[in-house]
Request: fold
Amino acid sequence: MTPACIIDEARLKDNARRMASVADTAGLTLRPHVKTLKSLEAAEIYAPLSSPITVSTLAEAQAFAQAGYTDILYAVGLTPNKLAVINRLLHQEIRLTVLIDSIAAAQMLATQADKLTATLHVAIEIDTDGHRAGVDAQSDDLLRIAAIIDGSATLSLSGVMAHAGASYGAFDNESRQHFAQQECDKSLLAAARLEDAGYSLSMISVGSTPTALSGITYEGVTELRAGVYATFDCVMAGLGVCQYNDIALSVLTSVTGRQADKGWVLIDAGWMALSRDTGTASQPLDCGYGLVCDENGTLLDGWYVQQTNQEHGIIVHRDGLIPDDSQFAYGTMLRILPIHACATAGQFNDYHVTTDNVHVEKIWQRINGW
Amino acid sequence: MTPACIIDEARLKDNARRMASVADTAGLTLRPHVKTLKSLEAAEIYAPLSSPITVSTLAEAQAFAQAGYTDILYAVGLTPNKLAVINRLLHQEIRLTVLIDSIAAAQMLATQADKLTATLHVAIEIDTDGHRAGVDAQSDDLLRIAAIIDGSATLSLSGVMAHAGASYGAFDNESRQHFAQQECDKSLLAAARLEDAGYSLSMISVGSTPTALSGITYEGVTELRAGVYATFDCVMAGLGVCQYNDIALSVLTSVTGRQADKGWVLIDAGWMALSRDTGTASQPLDCGYGLVCDENGTLLDGWYVQQTNQEHGIIVHRDGLIPDDSQFAYGTMLRILPIHACATAGQFNDYHVTTDNVHVEKIWQRINGW
Reply:
């Protein structure tokens, strides 16, 4: 029944191999971010049980810990109201690392540290591109945060973490290498300052899909994080980080009708299925809410989802072609390539997995919520 | 734990009373659209068990039928691959009405009609404003569709349905009345043509929140549909259909940090919690990804969520004020009013319900998926 979220397992495996090879070549540990698909079954392909992982919610942390993952980085700035769940996770004898970037957060942790039932690892987030969170690698706060963490018996300073989010605006590999190198340099600078102050660090963690695939050598860092590379999406293809036919996730939809005078094909995938993400609007090729493929995943050149309501999508052709029964008869099934796979996948509770793009062989579950 | 979705039950009840009063005054049946909250517990307030309802997915239809609702309109153009579920619903002895707008869809239904185990009611969607789906009220197709439906023993033509979606762009009540009257006039024209052709109709269904609250008399139609009025949101407030303090849904979030030099407050509600909807971007007051309130729901003047990543939001002040510890200390909880309540609610599996804006008294479940 449509809409449904389809995963092309062969492409997922190819994408996983590509990133694993990057990490191998650089001699780095790969710590995949499981936030795109949030699925234990999917993770078997790109983040097997022995792998360290990154999570975006404590719901993911709990599900993956329950499944046997033992090294988990929760890569969103910790808040006080999450400590009870953090403590429950520590009961499971995993190595759990949380992220902070302020003296206030360090003080909160120090105040609560005697309630922790096992060692909680703490990484300090470094701001390398002014994109979001993090402290400056050269700031006094960096050393003050470290001192506060180091003063608590149940807290262990594991190191530093950076995310070069600004690389999502970098349209050529030279720019992406610039962001990647900057991410490394500032992370290494922060780590050096901490080590000079006497702290021993086990984690210097960097990564984003665009920087990780840019081909720098990553000397000195300990691990690479990335997430959306597993499925890729139109934003990544628009940046040139992948090709459209690398995209491993799509939304199966049915044609509900046409408004021929306007050149519209109506489908039963609106923003509830595709998400409201319009991340390619600022790219040279605006793909609207997604590019249109036939039922077996072959791109239909020029057709894209231009508008969405909750359960309605409107497909048009870039050059104004009028859709007809040959491609868009009532009831025809199509597949829509996602603008932003993390957002589109987030609209579903499960995935329909195919290896031949004809049959659905299995269903994978997704871990939603927080 | 944050982020969480909060419902202010007192406001929900006020909003429900307001729409019920509109329907009462006009002498119309109200058929609430349950697509915003998709919750049986919430529906007890604005769509009690005896009420006809509108649904946006068959998952909603199944849950509400199971709970005892007996008159359900599935208001998205039907596709062939949904017939098996439709047939399972008919086993429950409910009055189920589906929507079609083409000869192809009517033919599909007629071909499959002998497999139906009970009468399936069919409404024809009328396009009253060129906004989305539907046939023209004056078209030949209208009568041809009716004839096809009428020719099948298990299909029953119930009438016509229209949705004045273009009213979401109407910033004054006069324009909304125009769209409302146009929606009525064209629906009544279509109904008259069908009745002249000998069909007896039980449903002339119109509605959208902006048109339903515009104050026209609705003479001749049988029922009014609307959905987002139950919670309202920043889009509706921006149109002038409600006030900001009517909004009954918000996202509870925590401050994770600040970047003082940029005037940023970072919070743990990103687009995964707030949705990617930026529906006020085309309105005079762009509220970004949501307006900021304190923990108890009082608006903090000028503060709004300007940027989002998956689990990070960035709050700024409209006039560039620098956030400080007085309002935005690390760990402070805030509430974000949604841009589009249907989209924000869709990001959650449940709601935390409060009547006093201090305590959470109960949890309501949401019906996600299709």
